[in-house]
C-alpha cells in the first residue's frame, strides 16, 4: 500500500487507456486481475487481524479482483467468505471465480463479518446500484469493525466524486493502479476513508497529481529580507482580513511584508506600513502583491483593484476582488497571477462550474490564463497549460472566517520567495492544510497564521 502524496491522478477513461496499453504490450486482463487481487489480499492481511473476512463481489472485473483476493487469503490460512451480486460476466472474472472454488453466498442474504471488503463495482460506474444491492452493502458494511473498498466504494462516480445513491463510509479504500479524482473530490472522498494505492503495473502520463509536500529550506547564510521575498498587501475596507493575509505572509517565510494603506491598530511591529501610491506600487522589489481580502465591492474597492492590476507585480487575487474582475481582463495582463476563489467567488467570476471540480478549475485557468486555486472541502489547483493538483482533504475546522485570507498570504509568501505560480499555489495550499492539522480543533484564523512558522521550522 502506497500513500497518495505526489501520485498521478487518472480519470476513468485514462485508466482504461492505461490498462489497454498494458494489454497491448502483452499483459493480459487476467494478469492485471491477479496483480490487483494479490495486492488487495496483502493489504487485507495487514489490516484485518485475526477476524473473519467477507468479500462482496460484483459481476465485473472489480468482482474478479475480489475472487482472486479471497483465494489468496484462504491460501494464507484466513477465514474468508464471498457474497456475490451476480455471476461474473467477463472471461477473466469467470476464471477468477473458478479459482476461488468455494461457496458463494447470495449478496441479499449474506450474513455479516467483522471485516467487509466491497469489490462490487469500481471505476467507471455511471448509474446507481440496484436498490437491493445498495441495501445489502449498507447492511453489511455499517456494523463491520473494518470496512475496505476495492478501487472505489460502490456507488461513486469516478471522475466527479458524485454519489449515485446512499454510499456508506469506508475505513480504507485501496485504489487499483492509480489514484482517481473521486478519491480526492467531495462528496465521494468523504466515503473513502484512508486511501492507499495498490500498483498493478500500468503506466500513464497524466497532467494531474495529488498535492505533495513542498521542499522547504531554511534561508541561505547570505540571505536578507528582500532575497527571502517581499509581499505587499492592499488594505481593504475590512482591515482585519488584510492584516490576516499580511501576518500569514510573514509567518510563511516572506522577508519583508508591507501593508499598503492606513495603519491598523495592534498590527505587529514587523509589519511595514506604507502608503498606497505610485512610488510604492512601482517598487521593483515587490515579489507578490495581494489584493482582495476585505477589499469591499464599491467604487473605492474597484479603484484599488484597478491600481493593483495596473502594477507590474505578480498578483494573488482573493475575496472581494474576484467579484470585481473578469476573465478577459485577467487574460490581458502579462504578469503572473494566482486566483483563490471558493465556490461562490468562482461562480461569480467564471459562471456555474461545468463537469467535475477538476474540469471546472482547468477550464477557468485556460479562460483567464492564470493559476486558479479552486478551494473548499476539496481544493483543486489548475494552470493554464492543463496541469492540475488535487489536495487531500484538510481539516473541517478550516470552515471559519479568515482562513481564506491566511491562505492568500501563505501563497503570496511562496510566490515572492521565487516559486513559479503553480508551485507557489501548491506550496501555500499544503502549508495551510498542515497548519490546520497542527492547530487541532476550533482554531481561529489568527491561530492558523501563527502555526505556519512552526511548519517551516
UniProtKB/TrEMBL annotation:
Tell me yes or no: is Lyase among this UniProt entry's keywords: yes
Assembly and partners are described as: Homotetramer.
Q: Which residues bind (6S)-NADPHX?
A: 61-65, 122-128, 151, 241, 294, 342, 405
**Single GO term (MF):** metal ion binding
Tell me the function of this protein.
Answer: Bifunctional enzyme that catalyzes the epimerization of the S- and R-forms of NAD(P)HX and the dehydration of the S-form of NAD(P)HX at the expense of ADP, which is converted to AMP. This allows the repair of both epimers of NAD(P)HX, a damaged form of NAD(P)H that is a result of enzymatic or heat-dependent hydration.
User: Which reactions is this enzyme annotated as catalysing?
Assistant: (6S)-NADHX + ADP = AMP + phosphate + NADH + H(+); (6S)-NADPHX + ADP = AMP + phosphate + NADPH + H(+); (6R)-NADPHX = (6S)-NADPHX; (6R)-NADHX = (6S)-NADHX
Alphabetized UniProt keyword annotations: ATP-binding, Isomerase, Lyase, Metal-binding, Multifunctional enzyme, NAD, NADP, Nucleotide-binding, Potassium
Q: Which cofactor does it need?
A: Mg(2+); K(+)
Q: What is this protein called?
A: Bifunctional NAD(P)H-hydrate repair enzyme
Protein family = In the C-terminal section; belongs to the NnrD/CARKD family.
Give EC number(s), comma-separated: 4.2.1.136, 5.1.99.6
Chain residues that bind AMP: 375-379, 404
Every copy of the YjeF C-terminal domain together lies at: 208-457
Residue ranges annotated for the YjeF N-terminal domain, each copy included = 15-208
**Superkingdom of the source species:** Bacteria
Name the source organism: Sphingomonas ginsenosidimutans
Biological process terms in GO annotation:
metabolite repair; nicotinamide nucleotide metabolic process
Which gene produces this protein? nnrE
What does the cofactor field's note say? Binds 1 potassium ion per subunit.
